[in-house]
Amino acid sequence: MTHIHVVGARPNFMKAAPVIKALVELGEVPTLIHTGQHYDALMSDVFFRDLGIPAPDVHLGVGSGSHAQQTAALLTELERVFREHQPEGVVVYGDVNSTLAAALASSKLGIPTAHVEAGLRSFDRSMPEEINRVVTDALADLHLVTSPEALALLSREGISADRMHFVGNTMIDSLIANRHLFDDGVATALGISEPYGVITLHRPGNVDDRRALRTIVSALAEVSRFVPLVFPVHPRGKAGLEAVGLESSERLRLVEPLGYIDFMSLVSGAALVITDSGGIQEETTVLGIPCLTMRPNTERPITITQGTNRLVRPDELGGAVEAILKSPPDLRPPPPLWDGHAGGRAASVIADWLRALRDQR
Length: 361
Fold this sequence. Notes:
By secondary structure, the chain is α/β, with parallel strands linked by helices. It folds into 2 domains: about 5-170 and about 340-360, 3-Layer(aba) Sandwich (Rossmann fold); about 180-325, Rossmann fold (3-Layer(aba) Sandwich), CATH 3.40.50. Helix content is about 45%, strand content about 15%. It contains 16 helices and 13 strands. It has helices at about 10-25, 45-50, 65-85, 95-110, 130-140, 150-155, 170-180, 185-190, 205, 210-225, 235-245, 260-270, 280-285, 300-305, 315-325, 340-360, and strands at about 5, 30-35, 60, 90-95, 115-120, 140-145, 165, 195-200, 230, 250-255, 270-275, 290-295, 310. Strand 11, helix 13 and strand 12 form a beta-alpha-beta unit. Helix 1 (about 10-25) crosses helix 7, helix 1 (about 10-25) packs across helix 16 (about 340-360) and helix 4 runs parallel beside helix 5 (about 130-140). It is globular, with a radius of gyration of 20 Å.
């Protein structure tokens, strides 16, 4: 018997690495499936190397497509692998399509499922990730949560207390474990010596709507006049950005996606970050880097109440950046259990869960 961990996109890799490492130390033998939802080497392979994740036992190579096409392909392939391996349990991470598909496939086959990063809610069903979160939590048997408010949200949705465990944020384990490797090499290579900002954008609401994207690009051009910006362009938004005429310049550098160490090095040296990423809201909270999130909501409210994050509209961006440059926010203690040991706590809960499943056989 074995248990399977399913990852597919770069946010999953940082969350899974500490858990898998800790499970191995506890004597468990995880089987790792990489669905290939992120298939570009700069979005996938380099993260495995940077984070020290073992090579996947199974690589499905599903690739891209519409949400329906990708999820259907993932369901088909994951069902086949689950039937072949007959795992005693499946562990899924985050809110990407691979997570939803794995939870659906395992549940339909009667395989118990654990969800790492359960209970996050933006209450915005226009976000595909929100649908993935809600459905995955409804199907999961074990819920490992990153922040206290998730316990109350899951309870409201009918999840019993014995199925929920507050373990902390496993992605922050990856940040803390690798922080000594962060340096100014990327900024130096770009010839940037003054304070700079970092941009990431990939949410459909920002990059798929050409009218919204033009507004965002105009706001970024305004900001770049008083602080240089570095923009590692996610494949998800590249075509849209090119279509609205965004080009690299001395003040707004468009670069290829970066590996984990290079990207976090760039972020850790930044004066501010402009993003729509959930994970970066969390990472900047721990690093103490001011973060402006271009979304109307966040499923990570703790990054606002206890962190450096603020939600902004494009028309508010210039003023928000000016305020940060004049008076950076004070560094606050990280949220509870974002301490670099969440992976060990999650692994301990998962190991106990697996032992209980074995005892039932």
